[in-house]
Specification:
Length: 239
């Protein structure tokens, strides 16, 4: 099989989806007994045709994810040591176990945002495989998908952003100039009962992040079950 340079690779619990530079998409499912997690020692084998990658999308639900807020004048003052100390103090998380990446916004009270943690054992496994090591961008899939919708609207309002697909739903709350949380829930969204149950759990999670059901605008890609339970849902992006 000839080697093809692939521009994007998405890894989730079901397998790999690859998209080459011409836009062709190929799906490689994991076998039923194969389970690969970011928290394990091993990485799954890439499809045989892959010789180089422009980016790899990693599953958000397998990352450590926490919100943060600091009374800083500039985002440039934020660093890994500060975030690591915050994780240790607030959540009892040992920062030595994690390779941290963060996204921040300048807000009225200082600097706020989300920090993601990739297990260092996984980082080490990536560094031992040539293709993984050479890939210039490792991206968090949920962050990319939710921010796509956020970029379409006025960010001065409180916004619950939802991006559903056949296997589940990404969602998060953007409020007071920064993300207040993000989450992924996996289920069969084509099953009507499961879709209704997930819709209720999405609401509870968004409320835990600080969503006001009466005043928060809902945008993104929704199932009919999600749209029915969210009174301010944007109606033009249902799936």
């Amino acid at each position: 099989m000839p080697h093809t340079a692939l521009s994007r690779l998405n890894w989730d619990d079901s397998g790999f989806t690859v998209r080459d530079e011409q836009g062709n998409i190929d799906v490689t499912p994991f076998a039923q007994d194969e389970k690969f997690a970011l928290f394990g020692h091993d990485l799954p084998d890439l499809p045989a045709a892959v010789s180089s990658l422009g980016c790899i999308y990693l599953p958000m639900e397998q990352f450590l994810s926490r919100t943060f807020s600091f009374p800083l004048q500039h985002r440039k003052h934020l660093d890994a040591d500060m975030l690591g100390q915050e994780l240790a103090d607030v959540a009892g998380i040992d920062p030595e176990d994690w390779w941290l990446s963060w996204r921040s916004e300048k807000v009225e009270a200082g600097v706020a945002g989300l920090v993601f943690g990739l297990p260092k054992i996984t980082q080490q496994a990536m560094q031992q495989q040539a293709i993984w090591q050479a890939t210039p961008l490792l991206l968090v899939d949920g962050w990319e998908r939710l921010n796509y919708w956020l970029d379409q609207v006025d960010k001065s309002e409180a916004l619950a952003v939802i991006d559903a697909d056949a296997q589940g739903v990404f969602f998060g709350l953007f409020q007071d100039g920064a993300w207040q949380g993000m989450r992924r829930l996996n289920t069969d969204m084509n099953d009507e009962e499961q879709s209704r149950n997930i819709a209720q759990e999405v609401i509870w999670s968004l409320q835990a992040m600080g969503m006001d059901m009466v005043h928060t605008q809902i945008i993104g890609r929704l199932t009919s079950a999600l749209a029915d339970q969210l009174p301010l849902a944007h109606a033009t992006h249902q799936i």
